What does this fold into?
Amino acid sequence: MNDENDLLGGKRGIDVIHDPLLNKGTAFTEEERERLGLRGLLPPRMHDQQLQKERVLENLRRKTSDLEKYIYMVSLQERNEHLFYRVLVDNLEELMPIVYTPTVGLACQRYAHIFRRPRGLYVSQADRGRVAEVLRNWPQRDVRVMVITDGERILGLGDLGANGMGIPVGKLSLYTACAGIHPRQCLPVTIDVGTNNRSLLDDPLYFGLQRERLRGEDYEALIDEFLRSAAQLFPRAVLQLEDFGNANAFRLLTQYRDSFCLFDDDIQGTAAVALAGLYSALRITGGTLADQRVLFMGAGEAGIGTGELIIHALRAEGLAEREARQRCWFFDSHGLVVAERTDLSPHKLPFAHAHPPAADFAAAIEALQPTAIIGVSGQAGAFSQESVRAMARINRRPIVFALSNPTEKAECTAEQAYAWSEGRAIFASGSPFAPVDYQGQRYVPGQGNNVYIFPGVGLGVVASAARAVTDEMFFTSARTLASLVSESDLAQGRVYPELPRIREVSTHIAIAIAELAYDQGLARNPRPGDIAADVRACIFEPNYPRFA
It folds into this structure.
């Protein structure tokens, strides 16, 4: 009874219906309607959650565009979170592309135009000196996961300013759907420091600050105040940085990772999912990670983060760091990253090897003879037919990962990868591609989406109350994910588990992360007798609570 009272917080009648975490709509029982003063406020016939789910899916599937489906699902989340998550969890393969990539990219571009109800917390430069006061306005006190963006580099779409709120909202939906973090414990945050996107600044419906981006000391002071205030008010929360511009992302991670329980998903989450894909691919190609040479198209957050995690893995196999770095090469907008270039930003310098320059990606492939190419450039079509054919000529089973999001930004399509390699490519992409039939064989491309990593890492950190998120945790999550790929997955060309298994995958990763936190003395919780049972006890199931 005390738990029920705590959940209701004294609410009755219409206030219960208007609270998305309490509302059950027509699923309130006769006894609940009597006790909570709901008689007359609802249609008289009770429909359980299963019938409600059928109604939602019927209406959803009538929508004629993915953006309309996105709006419908967001509206459901705003009025009935348990039903939203029940529908999402039970239909994840169908609906994850709607609530997150690729549809969330279009939703962010149109966010101010499709705006219905505010969700999450907006912090702007006008809040300097009183950020803690703004954070106290958030109604939930037991926040365990925060996803934070400043909107400068939304997916592969660039600077979307305050419209970027769709990303932390969507990411946290996946924390709940894929790992069972309770929605009450999730806080999406957009730090609005302006935008350099002229179309947004000229748009009368844009609801962010109408000014160019804040830079320099003022920007750094606002971010610092926010992070310190967030850690003070929500001391058990893990802080996930998302879609910051390259320079800020690397600097903020380096500056704050040892001070707060903080990570950057674009740098570390992408790295773990890419490394897991490589481990799985090696079960098809044979050989070890040390036998590989990886060429990245793109040298931003995702690429450099993946390179660093590969080096971490190679050092675990016994290679010296210098030798490990020789296994990773990068190609950016100015060509191959080599030592003689004078235009390299600091995060690229550790990968600038002594080698003749190459201005063409296919030429770089011919010169370096890589076993794998990984696209993290956000440049559609960056893997040309010539490039993929070169990979297929050099390798019996070329590894081709086109990981840029959303779908239209992928370096090549699944169909192109299979056709250009005569069906021999081991392909993965960031956004989903449909199965491909090529010369009588069906290929099922793997989706190398960070959703296989960050929800499980977050659940493990939450369950153990870890004080930090470490590189070792992402290395562990990559190995755990790869171990969950079945032989039947590999036989179809898929280097990641089927998406409907995501809750199982996240739970395994969370257990491994919690064990690591306890073993390394990072956990603030006392070590339980059964870590797996303790992790599973933290998982939210989107079934309606009982109020009577």
Observations:
- The chain has a mean pLDDT of 96.
- The chain has four domains: 2-99, 113-260, 268-449, 452-537.
- The first strand starts at residue 121 and ends at 124.
- The radius of gyration is 24 Å.
